[in-house]
C-alpha cells in the first residue's frame, strides 16, 4: 500500500508549476541545487559540499587516472643529464598507475550513482510539491531513511569497504593477466609494464615448459581434491557410525577427543606434523626404526610426500565430517530401522539402504563445498611440504604444489605476476563452476523468497 | 527394544575408538612433552621426558630479539578488534540482505558469491598498494580494517540464520510501532546469539592464526603477530631450537583450542548454515 501511494505521488499533476522538472534540471546542473529549490536547505547544502569536494578530487585525478589505466605509464626510469650531472630520474610506476586508475574509476562510478540518486530525489520531491505536499525537513528525512531505506543504510559502509578492499583488488588481479608484469624485464619502478592482451594465456597454454607444469599441477590438484574429500568424508562417516552405536559410553568425551585435531590452529598442528614426519629425527621414523622397519622418506620423496599430505589432511578433516554426520544421524527416523529389522535386514543392509542414502542426501552440498575448498587448500600443502620436493620438469613448482600454492610461489618468490594472475583466473573458473552448480541446487537459492 | 550386542562387536568398537583417540591426541601430547623437555633438540628418546623444565616458556618472554610477549599482546589486540568490528559488519550485511527486499539485493548476493571464489594472493598485492597509498602499511589499523571488511564477505552465515526467523515475529513488533532499528536490536540480535558467537569465534581465530596477509603488511618485528613470529621461527630457528618452538606453539594453540572445544555445539550449526556459501 505504501509503495502505491508513492507511485501516485510520482505522477506529475497537470495543474500548477512544474516543480519536479525544475528541481530535476537544477540538480543535474549541480548536486543539491534541486533540493535547495525544493526548500530542503540542509540536504541541499550537504549535497553541494559533497559535489564540491568530489569535483576538487576528480578534476585533479580523473584524467591522470584514466591516462594511467590506458597507457600504464610512458616514461621509463633512466639516467638523464640534469645540468652537468647525470642522475637517476624516476619514471612512471605502471602498477601504481594501474591501481590509482582503478581507484579513481571506481570512486567516479560511486559518485555518478550518487548523482543519479540526487536527480531522482529532487524530481520526486518536486512532484510531491506539485501535489501540494510539504517537503520533508532534515529531521523528517533522517526519520524517513530509518523507515524505508533501512537496509540500504545498513549496507552502505560494508559495501564501500568491499568495493575497495575486495572488488578493486580482484579487478586488479584480472587486469594483471593481460599485462607483461613479470620479473625480470617488466618490474616497476625500473621498467614499464604494457598491456599484452591474451599473450600471457597463450604462453601458459601453448609454451611447452609452462603447459607441462600447468597440466601436471592441475592433475595433482584434482587428484588431491578428490582423494582428500573422499577420505575425510568416509573417514568421518566411519567414526560417526562407531560413535553413535547405542552401547558406547561417554559419547561426549570421545567426541571432544576426536575434535581436538580440528580445534588446534592449523598453523601450529601442521608445523608440528612437519616435525613429526621429519625423515631423520621425527618420532614417526624413530618408531619405525624401533620396530626394525625401514625409515620412510615422508616429506622428501614425491610419492611419499603425497601420501603424507593425504594422511595429515585426514587427521585434520575427519573431525569436521564426523561432527556433520553425527548431526545428520540424529535426524534419521528410528522407525525406518525398526521396519527394516522386521523384514530381517542385516546391519550392513540397513546401512546401505537407509543410513548412507540419508546421510549422502543431506550432506551432498557440503561435500561439493569441501571439494572446492580442497582445490584451494593452501595451508596443508604450504605448511607441510611447501610444495616440495623439487620437481625439475616443472616451471617453479614442486611435486606437491597445488594450483594455489604454485600461484603463491609465482607471485611472492618469482614475481611473475602476469602468469600468476592467469593461473588465478583458471582456478577461479574451476571453483566457480562447481560452486555455482552447487548453489543453484541448494535449497536456500530455490526457496529464497518463500519465507516472506 | 533391547538388543544383545555381541561382545566381539563391543570389543572391536572400543579398540577402534581407543586407537582413534590416540591418533587424535598424540601430536598435541608430543609437542606438549617437547615443550617441557630440557635441551633444544627435536630428537628424543622417549615421549615423556625424564625431567620437566619450564625454561623454554621463560625463554619465550625473556629473549630480547624474540619479543613473544609483545606479539601476544599485538595478536590479542588485532584479533579482538577485528572480532568486534567484523562481527558487526557481517551481521549488519547479512541482516539487510536477509530481511529486506530492494532492487540491488540479488545483484549484491551474486556478486558476493562470485567474489568469494577468487584466490586471495593476487588481490593481496593490490590491497598492499592500496594501504601504501593511504600510508597504512605496517600498522595494526590496516590489518583490522582488512579483516573487518573481509568479514563482510562471510555475511552468508548471518543471512542464512536470519532467513530462518519467521516474518510474523517482526511484523507483530512493527504493528506495535517498533522501528526497524528497534526490531533489529531488541528482537533479532538476542535471537541471533548462537550465530553471533560463531561468527565472533571464526573471525577471532582467523585473525589469530593468519600468517600470510599479516606477514605481508606488518613489516617491523615489534608489530608482528604470533602467527608471523612462529612462521619466522620455523623458517629460521626451528632446527636449532625445537623445544622453544614447541613452547611457543602451545601458548598459541591453547586459547583457541579451548575456545573451540568449549563452543563445539556451535560448530555444527555454523558448518551447516555456511554450507551454501560456496
TrEMBL record, chain A:
Q: Enumerate the Pfam families for this protein.
A: BPD_transp_1
The keyword Transmembrane belongs to this UniProt entry's keyword annotation: yes
Keyword Protein transport in the entry? The reply is no
Positions of transmembrane segments: 41-59, 95-117, 154-178, 217-241, 253-273, 303-332, 353-373, 416-437
Reading the lineage from the top rank, the first entry is Bacteria
InterPro entries for this protein: MetI-like (IPR000515), MetI-like_sf (IPR035906)
CDD domains recorded for this chain?
Answer: TM_PBP2 (cd06261)
This protein's membrane topology, according to the annotation, is: Multi-pass membrane protein
Reported function: Part of the ABC transporter complex MalEFGK involved in maltose/maltodextrin import. Probably responsible for the translocation of the substrate across the membrane.
Protein known as: Maltose/maltodextrin transport system permease protein
Question: What is the species of this protein?
Answer: Paenibacillus thermoaerophilus
Automatic annotation (TrEMBL), chain B:
Methyltransferase listed as a keyword: no
What residue stretches are annotated with the ABC transmembrane type-1 domain? Answer: 72-263
Compartments, as annotated in UniProt: Cell membrane
Superkingdom, taxonomy of origin: Bacteria
Q: Which keywords label this protein? A: Cell membrane, Membrane, Sugar transport, Transmembrane, Transmembrane helix, Transport
PANTHER family per the UniProt record, alphabetical: MALTOSE TRANSPORT SYSTEM PERMEASE-RELATED (PTHR32243), MALTOSE_MALTODEXTRIN TRANSPORT SYSTEM PERMEASE PROTEIN MALG (PTHR32243:SF50)
Sequence similarity: Belongs to the binding-protein-dependent transport system permease family. MalFG subfamily.
Q: What is this protein called?
A: Sugar ABC transporter permease
Taxonomic source organism:
Paenibacillus thermoaerophilus
